[in-house]
């Protein structure tokens, strides 16, 4: 994470700025940028097909979906619990 003009920006572990993911400095303690970093590395590898549902600050959205299955994830993107059909995702409590 890097800071500029009262904003926090996600950065890859090598220091490369990751565009589109930022938050206010006062929110920086809750920001880990894990989703932004994983998405950046995946896209940089040239692979396609995986979707990353990231919050605007770069953290993982608590609900991730792959095809028609949705599931809860922890702060590093690891699946937690069972998956449900995408049509039931609005009822999930992660």
TrEMBL record:
Residues 30-94 form the Thyroglobulin type-1 domain. Keywords: Disulfide bond. Transmembrane segments: none annotated. PROSITE patterns: THYROGLOBULIN_1_2 (PS51162). The keyword Nucleus does not apply. SUPFAM superfamilies: Thyroglobulin type-1 domain. This is Thyroglobulin type-1 domain-containing protein. It comes from Octopus bimaculoides.
């Amino acid at each position: 994470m890097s800071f500029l003009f009262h904003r926090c920006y996600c950065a890859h572990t090598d220091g490369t700025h990751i565009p589109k993911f930022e938050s206010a400095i006062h929110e920086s303690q809750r920001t880990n940028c894990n989703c932004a970093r994983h998405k950046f590395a995946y896209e940089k590898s040239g692979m396609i097909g995986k979707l990353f549902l990231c919050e605007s600050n770069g953290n993982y959205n608590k609900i991730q979906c792959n095809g028609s299955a949705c599931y809860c994830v922890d702060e590093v993107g690891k699946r937690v619990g069972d998956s449900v059909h995408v049509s039931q995702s609005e009822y999930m409590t992660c």
